[in-house]
Specification:
46% strand, mainly beta, seven-stranded mixed beta sheet, 0% helix, single chain
């Protein structure tokens, strides 16, 4: 069973940068291919932020294009989200997710596609 643990969240001013990390474990002998970052603000639905798949193909939500970069270290089973030029509307709980067995090159941004989730890390951006 895959376990995901996020880290790197915090409270920052608008315009700042943060890098989130997600460590995947429990997937002995295999690599996690399709992974993504999602976020959820209070009172709002969980939304896809960025995903990465086979061949490091990526997909981004329109709201973060040009500001966020998703990357992964497959050998270390680590996923990252570099967030630049943060805005107050980027605030929320950020979750890492994966779908075991997925081999898509540009995985879906839909949260229902993913089967395994971390506990989340909070990002708060103040104006």
């Amino acid at each position: 069973q895959v376990q995901l643990v996020e880290s790197g969240g915090g409270s920052v001013q608008a315009g700042s940068s943060l890098t989130l990390s997600c460590a995947a474990s429990g997937y002995t002998g295999s690599r996690v291919v399709c992974m993504g970052w999602f976020r959820q603000a209070p009172g709002k639905e969980r939304e896809g932020v960025a995903t990465i798949g086979k061949g490091d193909g990526t997909r981004y939500a329109d709201s973060v294009k040009g500001r966020f970069t998703i990357s992964k270290d497959s050998a270390e089973n680590m996923l990252y989200l570099q967030m630049n030029s943060l805005k107050p509307e980027d605030s929320g709980m950020y979750y890492c997710a994966t779908r075991v067995g997925c081999v898509a090159s540009h995985p879906s941004l839909g949260s229902t596609f993913y089967t395994t989730w971390g506990q989340g890390t909070q990002v708060t951006v103040s104006s």
